[in-house]
Amino acid sequence: MAENTPLVEMKNISIAFGGIHAVEDVSIDLHAGEVVALVGHNGAGKSTLIKILSGAYTRDAGTILVNGKEAQISNPRDAKKYGIETIYQTLALADNVDAAANLFLGRELMTTWGTLDDVAMESETRKVMGRLNPRFQRFKEPVSRLSGGQRQSVAIARAIYFDARILIMDEPTAALGPQETAQVSDLVRQLKQEGIGIFLISHDIHDVFDLADRVVVMKNGQVVGTARPGEVTEDDVLGMIILGKCPPGAVPGPGALQMAA
Amino acid sequence: MTDVKSEAASQGAGAAAESAPARFLKATELDTRMLGMLGALAVIWIGFHLLSGGLFLTPRNLWNLSVQSASVAIMSTGMVLVIVTRNIDLSVGSLLGFVGMVMGVTQAEFLPDLLGFGHPATWIIALAAGALLGALIGALQGFIIAYMGVPAFIVTLGGLLVWRGAAWWVTSGRTVAPMDATFRLMGGGPDGAIGAFWSWVVGIVACVALVLMLVHGRRQRRKFNFPLRPLWAEGFLATVGCALILGAIAVANSYPWPSGIVRRYFQAQGLPVPEDAFIAHGIAIPVLIAIGVGVIMTFLANRTRFGRYVFAIGGNPEAAELAGINTRWVVMKIFILMGVLATIAAAISTARLNAATNALGTLDELLVIAAAVIGGTSLGGGVGTIAGAMIGAVLMQSLASGMILLGVDTPLQNIVVGAVLVIAVWLDTVYRKRVKK
After folding, report:
1. Which of A54, A92, A119 sits opposite B319 (nearest CB)?
2. Which domain holds residue B211?
3. What is the SS3 assignment for A246?
């Protein structure tokens, strides 16, 4: 993780809904081939911050740099142009259409006649799903009929199919059993090796310590601090999440508990 | 080789445990819901036929039924897309009245002063003016719904009152007649039908298209190694499909012109009137228009980006937005389309009546919504088919004309139609719950 230009840099981001500052003056960065975990309580502002990067929300203040250049992201289409793909906590699947339609939603493959090329899309879907979830066979069914794990793999397939450079995973294992969770962990390591930068949002501290290069802790919309899993313990991070107390091994942020010196 | 293997795979494990009908449905990939609707339609037709002492299933009644269904069927194809995106359009009846009135005044009063009476371009100018007006009104309503965030129910409820009032204002309530001679062909009648020869041509073209579609589908599946339908199932679909098409043409071709019109036809040509002259109607032009609209709308819904987005928005509006779809623009386009379809329906209705009245299309919005819903469109959004809605329109019209044939009083007709609507949706709910399990 040398001092080269970060893949993404979010600087001094703020957003408020009504009078509530959901995200306040947050700065984070992400390098190629790095996994940065965002942790914190429900309502700490993790998902909101990430939705600003993926274009679902428009920030009130702050700048986003991609490869050191300022990026204009005001809707999800913009974010995708910068190679930012997102796996949402809610999965954001259209339940009434099949896996292929979801995978290519908004980026359909077309025939030379300008019509939908469903056959080609299904064929591509079969390929990518074969890699992620080899036992998956229900290509013709609406995704509402699929199991939680199958739906999750559709959402993941959608994010990785289009050569993402920056991947946002919001609770990617929330709906999964232990075996599928392990599969996702393997996938994260594999993507990391391919040089993709990953923002990982998770409640599971073990997962985070297992996968992340850096952990950013958020509380009440602010960054408490950033730590490397090797340099702090899981209890330290829990202390950051619950109390906002920054341990010696971590870099404190604006949200850190101010202690009497 | 591939063929055999994938056919075996498609019938896969557990095929032995399935009953013969289940295997049949699986092999032909027919939609059971659609079959159920066709079954219900058959029951209604046969029921009325028996009750009316053999009056219902006659070429004459079926031909009239097809013409009477056309207007509502056309609008129901647009209503499917509206409802699929979790919206509603209560204004289509009034829109039909207003646009019909404007088209009527254009061709009966405005253009004759400008171009002279009976100018050959009259009908097309009137129609284009109507289509433009319909699209503009649809765009206005769509804009308010999609970009200003007013619920569709409210916007179109307002439209229901506004456009009906506007229809009255055009002529202060006066009925406008007669319509241009060419324009009138869109309404059906002995002149507004394409005759036996061209009907057969249409039928044969439709059969060829059906077979080509099946062949193309099979080729595509083979190209990508997908499971194929067994050959017998493909043959079955082709045979039954063609038989239905040609059967419908035969019915349309066995409804003769009335003898008075036949006599005038021969006299106009200066020929002696033959004793047993038989000139068939053939397919009515409004029906042909409705079928064309159905084909185009099915294509739009299933084969284009626009259609895919419509269904995705209906399934999960938030997901569609996050996938980068411009959901507002899609919704606005749907309402523009609805406006144009209402215009086509208005042209057929005014042409059939040979007059534009300000009451034209009153309560049509309810028939159109009922047709779409009976046709399997879910008010919860995300589900619906164009063909289903069109069959729904025919079903509603069958009930209405069947009861008229039986001499049922109007109030009782309304009671029956209302009850059928509720029962149909209830049955659909039960069916969907069972399918889910």
Report:
1. A92
2. 194-283
3. coil
